[in-house]
Amino acid sequence: xxxxxxxxxxxxxxxxxxxxxxxxxxxxxxxxxxxxxxxxxxxxxxxxxxxxxxxxxxxxxxxxxxxxxxxxxxxxxxxxxxxxxxxxxxxxxxxxxxxxxxxxxxxxxxxxx
Amino acid sequence: xxxxxxxxxxxxxxxxxxxxxxxxxxxxxxxxxxxxxxxxxxxxxxxxxxxxxxxxxxxxxxxxxxxxxxxxxxxxxxxxxxxxxxxxxxxxxxxxxxxxxxxxxxxxxxxxxx
Lengths: 113, 114
Description:
The complex is a heterodimer. Chain A is mainly β. In chain A, about 0% of the residues lie in helices and about 60% in strands. Chain A is built from no helices and eleven strands. Chain A has strands at about 5, 10-15, 20-25, 30-40, 40-50, 55, 65-70, 75-80, 85-95, 105, 110. In chain A, strands 2, 4, 5, 6, 9, 10 and 11 form a seven-stranded mixed β-sheet that branches. In chain A, strands 1-3-8-7 form a four-stranded antiparallel β-sheet, with no helix packed on it. In chain A, strand 9 (about 85-95) and strand 10 (about 105) form a beta hairpin. By secondary structure, chain B is mostly beta strands. In chain B, about 0% of the residues lie in helices and about 50% in strands. The interface of A and B includes residues 33 and 42 of A.
């Protein structure tokens, strides 16, 4: 079984809808991250969490919110989806040490119509 | 804060040719450096990382990278490219304090031709 899983893997939604992307990990890591990937823009950090009680905004948090339900679960919500949120979304995890290696999930491809 | 630049957006090489992908970083202390690969339709996979010690780092799939402090670089190399190496490659830099997330470059897309 994969260490970092994301659901759904693909999603099509309409403008204005609320949508949640979920991430689960079995690596026992404290730190979790949400990124979006757009062609030519690389990976941009949306939110990150260093432990269950810690939530931090990343580079592009506007229009997104997150919930850290447990050490193993970190969800990303789009409160009111818009077309320019169409992207590939990745969840990642890492240990709570310096120079952490990040481990990525397979990604969720989101299309907002 | 740290930053990373990958100057080449897209590189095309012939199968069997050598490869070098460039990465330059900015950070006030000795950084932690990473190379990740993203194959089409896949997530990111760690190729190799540099924390300290030997500046030439060996990774998976025959890749290596060299940390050059004087040039603030961490270039990725492979002596002979295979068609299966076609992918997107990301360089990332981390702070030695560990209290900020990794910062990723925008990526270099590698195409391999016969």
